[in-house]
Amino acid sequence: MRMRKELVLLALILTLILAACTNKESAEKSTDKNKEKEPVLKDNIELSVKEAYIDDEVHFTIDSLESGMDVQLEWTEVEGAYDIQKLYAFIGTDYTSKEVPLVKGTSDDEGKWEGTFSVPSGFGGNHTLYVTSDDKKIGQTGFFVRPKFSISPESGPVGTEVTLEAEGLDWQTYKSMWNLTYDNKYTGMVSGVSTQGKANAVFRAAGSVGDHFLSLRSGYLGSPYINHGSSPHTGWPAPDFVFTVTDEVPLTEAYVEKTPEAAGGGVEMPKLENKKDVTVELDKEEGIVGEDVTLTASNLPADKKVEVVWNTMKGNRVTDAGFDEHSTVLDTVSSGTDGKAVYKFAIPDDLGGLPHRIDLKVGEEVYGQTYLRITPSIVELSPASGPAGTEINVTIKGGGWTEYDNAYYLTYDNAYSGYMCAFNSQGTLEYKVIATGEPGYHIIDMYPGVYEQQEIDTDMTLIPQLTYREDHPGSGMPAIRYGFEVTEK
After folding, report:
1. Predicted confidence (pLDDT) at residue 169 exceeds the cutoff of 50
2. Which residues are CB-contacts of 341 (< 8 A; sequence separation ≥ 6)?
3. How far apart (Å, rounded) are the C-alpha atoms in residues 238 and 218?
């Protein structure tokens, strides 16, 4: 009986093994058939050069085509954007691949096609060229777009704004974020995510009269990669520049720059909900703390008390208490017999960054809404001069609360010193700087940047973003410029 059971068990095992082998053979045959069906692209594209800069002309010759075939040369490109969720959470960068037509033509009697194309604007690095017909790919080859860099101007007094311009930056890790040093001091990062590989980084001239040396290096996790020549990416440039500080009167004005546009238009705020025919308008869409604003509403219920409700966020993202939306009644006004209400008020001392929603309530019902944004302002800079070691007291209003506008990043003579946050202090940035250096004027700058992100393949966090004017995610945040005159003791 026992032997019979063992024979049955053995037969079952052999059956399973045979079935597995049969399934494996079937799978292999199926895979082979699929491989046979996949089109094999020809290596039939010859280029005059295999790498070039944007806008350069490239000649191509394509053979092994059918006679009189309508064909097209296509280019693989990537489109960059920032991924932001829930209005405030910065996820990271987001890239989508697409194919861009370059030029169309018809093959000759011998099945050849010749022509030229201009290297299109966009991200640099490796691209694939395809020759297609009727939306079917026939052949392919590779092409490399080299990045290009320049600075302007190349000389000027302390405080001169300098622009580092780049095009053809790559989108891939290690080659998308670039890092600027000024006299071997880390200044900030250069990015071209939403601007598709283009970058305009701005900073100010600092230091003594004479030449100052700038280096731009690609890198990872917000740091320049130094031994570039022995890296796996030796094909990428490592540009250096010289800026000459002239013996002219320094530019000493303290100011907050004009609010720039956010990358890709910024986050889309929730749609305002107004009752039928109700309109709510402000005489300005943004302003600084304490600035006068006039609100005008029409078609409200006639002869009613109207509460003007200010909505904001309170809390922080580093303690268990977290953060939430809070509402405050600014004032109560009366609508006229025509349903119109006018309210003049000073912008509250509150958070900047994303705009605040203002609700107009009659009883418990919201009849109208509008948005008002607070922008940064300088409240205190004192003293303006003194010997090295002097404490400079600084107060800024209008800091933000999201992961992309909560923090500002401080540089002293283009050397990154550290960061500060505005959320827990409801938009106020109050801090001290110790004056250092030789006698003369020293520049101090506050740059926007990213406080936190979830995906760190391309880490932008906790460093000054020198390309904030065109490529800052979420909401446009201005740089803040000031300085200090170090005197003899």
Report:
1. yes
2. 295, 296, 297, 300, 306, 333, 334, 335, 360
3. 8
